[in-house]
Amino acid sequence: MIKIQDLLQKNSIIIDFQSKDKFEAIGSLARFLCQINGLADADEIVSKIIDREMEMSTGIGYGIAIPHARLVGIDRLYMVVARSVEGLEFNSLDEQAVNLIFVMISPANTSAEHTQVLSALSQIMSYEDVRARLLQTETSEDFIDIIASAENKYIGAQ
Length: 158
What we know:
Blueprint: H1 4-7, E1 13-14, H2 22-37, H3 42-55, E2 59-61, E3 64-65, E4 68-71, E5 78-88, E6 98-107, H4 111-125, H5 128-136, H6 140-154
Parallel strand pairs: 1-5, 3-6, 4-6
Antiparallel strand pairs: 2-3, 5-6
Helix pairs in contact: 2-3, 4-6
């Protein structure tokens, strides 16, 4: 079982994200993901994530969005996170602004792992105390600790 806490590193979290536009944010974060992980074809990755977003918003509610895509040629699951204190419009299910954006890409042939991580992330983010702590933390290390603690508490035994 892949753990979200294992996907996140200090350098994969932007605590003070400033973008105001949904598609600009997705593009910026996808390029950031490619840069920090040494992935080529950033344009293709951006395009796939935006294509997926155009099909249906990944704003799941509670101020959370999880833009994602599965791609041929990716060797494993990758994730980056951005926190926007002011929030941005994301056409979310609950019509609320998004404060936490988890961008994820995975290999095209790993739909079970992809779905498992999406499900675990959605479950963890359903807890108001977790979201509140993530919005208040000052460092990437604390952000990862909050995710790990929530994952171990709410997902760990499953």
